[in-house]
């Protein structure tokens, strides 16, 4: 069969298919006796184009949900605890599933891990965050700090309520507490500032106190504190030993600044009054 004959046969098949489709369309468009003929649509009315069907545009969220539900129980617990710290609200299992995508009722391991967590309180219906100290505001925070005259670690109260760190800074600014850093543990310690100890001291006593010469080495100061029954806030010997083990070099001594000599180039030589009090050596 030649190429021209194949093309003619293909055209005939196309015409036959077209005529079949036209006849089907004509039969379906004929009105029946029980139906009213629909009014013709005006050309001014815009034709509505159906939106194409798309797959989910929320792929990233669905992948995140799938990753959480396949993760170990401790990671699910962490996600729930983060939600507690941010909102400070009690959640039912259904609300946890909506907020964190963790189905604790369908996962016994997560449910038991969450119920036995020392940071979580479960009353039989809702789960809520349980901090070490149940504080509600600045007044309760100050009362707690005053009950720890030897100092209270900030890490023990920083998760009590949302604005606790702001309240600590406010108490420090008002002079009601002392907020100091512990060099060994790298944690802040808050101390109460008792207003009863604010007394007037004679100038002679101040001068005597300031005239006492302290040991140059911090290790000797710590030993003197221990002899007097006080616990030093630092441990210099331990810190130096750790520095030697890890090969941390000691701080170099600052170099003494050299004075002005004849070799010194004075850029402001046209202003001699600037150098009246400077002694330049002869050699």
From TrEMBL:
<feature type="region of interest" description="Disordered">
    <location>
        <begin position="1"/>
        <end position="49"/>
    </location>
</feature>
<feature type="compositionally biased region" description="Polar residues">
    <location>
        <begin position="1"/>
        <end position="46"/>
    </location>
</feature>
<dbReference type="Pfam" id="PF18121">
    <property type="entry name" value="TFA2_Winged_2"/>
</dbReference>
<keyword id="KW-0804">Transcription</keyword>
<comment type="function">
    <text>Recruits TFIIH to the initiation complex and stimulates the RNA polymerase II C-terminal domain kinase and DNA-dependent ATPase activities of TFIIH. Both TFIIH and TFIIE are required for promoter clearance by RNA polymerase.</text>
</comment>
<dbReference type="GO" id="GO:0005673">
    <property type="term" value="C:transcription factor TFIIE complex"/>
</dbReference>
<comment type="subunit">
    <text>Tetramer of two alpha and two beta chains.</text>
</comment>
<keyword id="KW-0805">Transcription regulation</keyword>
<keyword id="KW-0238">DNA-binding</keyword>
<feature type="region of interest" description="Disordered">
    <location>
        <begin position="231"/>
        <end position="283"/>
    </location>
</feature>
<dbReference type="InterPro" id="IPR040501">
    <property type="entry name" value="TFA2_Winged_2"/>
</dbReference>
<dbReference type="GO" id="GO:0006367">
    <property type="term" value="P:transcription initiation at RNA polymerase II promoter"/>
</dbReference>
<dbReference type="GO" id="GO:0003677">
    <property type="term" value="F:DNA binding"/>
</dbReference>
<comment type="similarity">
    <text>Belongs to the TFIIE beta subunit family.</text>
</comment>
<keyword id="KW-0539">Nucleus</keyword>
<dbReference type="GO" id="GO:0001097">
    <property type="term" value="F:TFIIH-class transcription factor complex binding"/>
</dbReference>
<feature type="compositionally biased region" description="Basic residues">
    <location>
        <begin position="252"/>
        <end position="265"/>
    </location>
</feature>
<feature type="domain" description="TFA2 Winged helix">
    <location>
        <begin position="136"/>
        <end position="193"/>
    </location>
</feature>
<dbReference type="InterPro" id="IPR016656">
    <property type="entry name" value="TFIIE-bsu"/>
</dbReference>
<protein>
    <recommendedName>
        <fullName>Transcription initiation factor IIE subunit beta</fullName>
    </recommendedName>
</protein>
